[in-house]
Amino acid sequence: MNHRLRSVLPGLLLLLLPLLFLPLAGCMTELEPGPANHVFAHRGASGEATEHSRAAYDLAIAEGAQWLEQDLVLSADGTLYVSHDKTPERMTGETRPFAELTDKEIDALRTADGQKILKLRDVFAAYRKKAGFVVEVREIEQVEPLFALIEEFGLEERMILQAWNTPALKAMQERCPTVRRMLLVKTQNGINWACIEDSVEIVAIEKPLMTEFNCSWIHQHGKEICVWTLNSEEELRRAIGLNVDCYFTDFPARALTLEAERVEPTEADGTAETGG
């Protein structure tokens, strides 16, 4: 028996070896085109659960969302955490900025309902098979550790990078060109500049700038348009009517219900180029 086993073992190992190198993404749920592709769960389902918490992300996914948003901060130890604010005071009462807190100190913090401040690594590990990520980089120092996590978890095809300026977008374009790039703008001049900037694929605007002219103008320049933050039924219906490509919302379930009514633009009717 031992002799026969030794003779079979090499062939068996050759058959099994490729399985060890299957990409992590091969186990992931595909991000499907359609209604859910237009909806970005803003800090998770943050209108119904504590923002940027496991509860908010779990609820967003349960409601049908496939894109989760993260805002980034760096700890004193150089670790990326997920928080909209530069200090955890609003969420936990701790007044010192994240940049002055060690990982151990941040990990000990709790929100009013007992939620932890999440490491970005833990978010990717928990949701990489279920969702895509819309990550906002605010400081150039955040770029390198983000690169490392994107590559470690194989998220190049499941990532949208958002930023207020182009250095981070240009760095991503050079290093991970398949990661989609979004520029956040708050003025008409910002829209005009974003439309001609090569590193920008998605122009993200505040909802007061969501006009028929701006939607048409951005689409005519070959860019996608994103809007933040739309929560009321009226706002959501207007975005859908203007063929806004994607938008942030605190209520993904409400948005997905309305998205079922969207008529996707086609080349034949010309709305794909003009934005409707």
Could you explain how this protein is built, in words?
By secondary structure, the chain is an alpha/beta fold. The protein has one domain: Alpha-Beta Barrel (TIM Barrel), CATH 3.20.20. It is 37% helix and 16% strand. The chain is built from 12 helices and 9 strands. The chain has helices at residues 2-16, 54-62, 89-92, 103-107, 120-127, 143-153, 166-175, 188-196, 212-220, 233-241, 252-259, 271-274; strands at 39-41, 67-74, 80-82, 132-137, 159-163, 180-185, 202-206, 224-228, 246-249. It has a 9-stranded mixed beta sheet with strand order 1-9-8-7-6-5-4-2-3. Strand 8 (224-228), helix 10 (233-241) and strand 9 form a beta-alpha-beta unit. Helix 10 (233-241) packs across helix 11. The longest helix has 15 residues, at 2-16. The radius of gyration is 21 Å and the shape is globular. Residues 12-26 and 270-276 have low confidence and may be disordered.
Blueprint of the fold:
Blueprint: H1 2-16, E1 39-41, H2 54-62, E2 67-74, E3 80-82, H3 89-92, H4 103-107, H5 120-127, E4 132-137, H6 143-153, E5 159-163, H7 166-175, E6 180-185, H8 188-196, E7 202-206, H9 212-220, E8 224-228, H10 233-241, E9 246-249, H11 252-259, H12 271-274
Parallel strand pairs: 1-9, 2-4, 4-5, 5-6, 6-7, 7-8, 8-9
Antiparallel strand pairs: 2-3
